[in-house]
Amino acid sequence: MKVLGIETSCDETSVAIVDHRGTILTNLVRTQFEEHKKFMGVVPEIAARAHIDVLPDMIRQALEETHLTFKDFYGIAVTAGPGLIGGLSVGVMMAKAIASTHDKPFLAVNHLVAHALTTRLTHQTPFPYLVLLVSGGHCQLLIARDVDDFELLGQTIDDAVGEAFDKTAKLLGYGYPGGPQIEEKAKTGDPTRFAFPRPLITHPRYGFNFSFSGLKTAVRETIYRLNPLSQCDISDICASFQQAVADIFTKRADQALKYCQANAIPVKHFVIAGGVASNHYIREALIGVAGKNQVEFVAPPVKLCTDNAAMVAWAGLEKLKKGHIDDLSVAPRPRWPLPSRKGRKCLK
After folding, report:
1. Is the residue at 336 inside a domain?
2. Residue 76: strand pairing partners
3. What is the mean predicted confidence (pLDDT) over 213-239?
4. Which end of the chain has a smaller Cβ tally under 10 Å, C or N?
5. How many structural domains is the chain composed of?
6. Are 160 and 274 members of one domain?
7. Mean pLDDT of 201-224
């Protein structure tokens, strides 16, 4: 069983082919760094046009590399949300056209589900497992119970952590995306120099939720106060910011794992997914939390942490195995909550 996957939810255009055994036959990714660099962030209209320009050729390239034709696929999977509506529309229309023309099942994939299920593609992680899903647009703590059943324990009440990384990098004069540059500068910095806040983690009434707006504000005020900055100042700010994020994550992960134990939820794996999961410093901090709670820490390879079509194709395969096929009338959704069969809500 082979599925063609298409990803166009933000600023990466990606096409992949994955089979039911978890073999990635091809995973093409075209970034838009150059298009958005001068704007210090993603411009939706530019992103959509870029997807239109390259997607047809990328699909042809994927077929040529694998020596396959559309008749070889069991389904066509595409990110249908959440994301930028222009980019989503490009991918969804292309996937529908292929599925309709070649009479193949159409599989509308939730982008967050695709990230959360990547660990099953790379590590065959069994349900249930705890997931920290962290990216430029999302920050959520979940229990993955099945392909279509996620319990949302907590989420950001304001900004996503990836956005906080990008805004901090922008304040320091670095380009987009900011995460890799912050991590690199932090290697030579002192993480204890600046006592940046760890919002919410000492307030029980907020449950497992996150907040990063106060942290961003503290970083901005520090930069303005010290201006002009020395290279030492920049490294110390990056290291202190990164340490604050790591402390927030370790605290919430520890709370969530203890919650699972107290409620007899048989979680044996703690997974990190999403673009921020490529940060090695944060990974190391979370490995310690997993070991402390006697669960296995799992992180996909770095190249599968950022947006890619391999995870979309795999999520489509997971749907296909359960007999979940979508109608061609499905529309792209800029907002799309994770599915829960029991309507579980975020704990307060």
Report:
1. no
2. 4, 106
3. 97
4. C
5. 2
6. yes
7. 92
* Phi, psi (rounded to 5 degrees) for 175: -85, -175
- Mean pLDDT over 58-66 rounds to 98
pLDDT tens-digit readout, 148-184: 999 999 999 999 999 999 999 999 998 777 899 999 9
Do 86 and 183 fall within a single domain? no
Nearest 5°: the CA angle 242, 110, 48 is: 80
Contact between residue 143 and residue 128 where contact means Cβ atoms under 8 Å apart: yes
Nearest alpha-carbon partner for 147 in 180, 192, 114, 173: 114
Say whether 52 sits in a helix, a strand or coil: helix
138 with 110, same domain: the answer is no
Q: Which two tokens stand for residue 321?
A: 């195995």
Q: Are residues 72 and 133 in the same domain?
A: no
Residue 33 above 80 pLDDT? no
Give the HSE-up count for residue 61: Cα atoms under 13 Å, Cβ half-sphere. Answer: 13
Cα 283-287-288 angle, rounded to 5 deg: 125
* Residues 295, 311 within the same domain: no
Spatial contact of 207 and 153, defined as CB atoms under 8 Å apart? yes
Q: What is the pTM of this model?
A: 0.93
Q: Please list the residues that pair with 108 across neighbouring strands.
A: 78
Same domain for 189 and 262? Answer: yes
> Which CATH number do you get for residue 27?
3.30.420.40
C-alpha closest to that of 122 among 10, 271, 229:
271
pLDDT band at 340 (very low <50, low <70, confident <90, very high): confident
Which residue range forms the structural domain that includes residue 46? Answer: 2-116+306-321
Co-location of 152 and 295 in the same domain: yes
| C-alpha to C-alpha distance for 322 and 306, rounded to whole angstroms | 26
Same domain, 151 and 249: yes
Summarize pLDDT for 236-290 with one digit per residue, the tens.
999 999 999 999 999 999 999 999 999 999 999 999 999 999 999 999 999 999 9
pLDDT at 206: 82
Those residues whose C-beta lies under 8 Å from the C-beta of residue 152, and which sit 6 or more positions away, are: 140, 141, 142, 338, 340, 344, 345, 346
The answer to whether position 331 is within a domain reads no
